[in-house]
Amino acid sequence: MTRSFSDTVTLHTGGEIPGFGFGAGGLKGREALDAVTSALLDGYRLIDSGQRYGNEREIGLAVAQSGIPRSEITLSTKWCAPLQPSPSELEKLVIPEVEEIVRGLRESVIKLNNGKDVDQGGYIDLVLLHHSGPTPAWREQGWKALSQAKDEGWVRNIGVSNFGIKQLESLPGHVPVLVQLELNPWIQQRQVVKYCQDKGIVVQAYCPTARYQADRIGHPTVIKLAEKYNKPSGHILLRWSIQKDLIPLPRSSKEERIHANRCIFDFQLDDEEMAALDSLDMGSKGRQTPIDPDNLP
What we know:
By secondary structure, the chain is α/β, with parallel strands linked by helices. The protein has a single domain (8-87, 94-284), classed as TIM Barrel (Alpha-Beta Barrel). The protein contains twelve helices and ten strands. Strand 7, helix 6 (165-170) and strand 8 form a beta-alpha-beta unit. Helix 1 runs parallel beside helix 2, helix 2 (56-66) packs parallel to helix 4 (98-112) and helix 9 packs across helix 10 (233-243).
């Protein structure tokens, strides 16, 4: 379990990754630049992005302007295949060649390294497949591209997001170092989390504060614990993630919340309190995002 904000987690490749991160999904333009700048200045050293988010350039600029050595920051992005196309749309789509995907990843290198290409020392610490669909062929092609980038050395580690056990077991070659999942007390995905942790695959939690949805952040169980520990409700949910050996990726555009989210290491939930939060699990009905690996091939 991560015991301080600055703790790192060891990957099965031998590298390390910060045990607490900042999610940049949904942040655009100046908002993204300001939020990531605030996070970096406040000590965050893991920034999670994705090609689909459209903010890699702002993240690269924030890193460059921070004055923090690039080697001290872990930058993560994702390659995204088509997201839930209809059967008729899927028939018209052509799976890109591996080299086409690799070229796109090199564009991400340039953005995240503020203009530096691979030949100029640019690199990405972690690249994920954004989800496990829409077909096994798309998944395999994406994984081949990520694997090639890793073998060439300018992507340090590769992993996946929104995968279930059956999709994880279908990947050829490299074993993912990390799986990113929607995780909070209402969507716990216990089987895949246990599978990953048993195999030494690190698990990251996105939406760890359940997007501050009123009926969740204001749930009586959460409110009771928040009052007991004199903490905001979101801190109770982040603490749950930490005690589940997950890497939470809270996202916010507010400087005060970015700072506050890191202040969860001065209390600990007891076994009974963790069990009470565990009892909130709704399975797939607890999802707030549309990607459900159980519904993908």
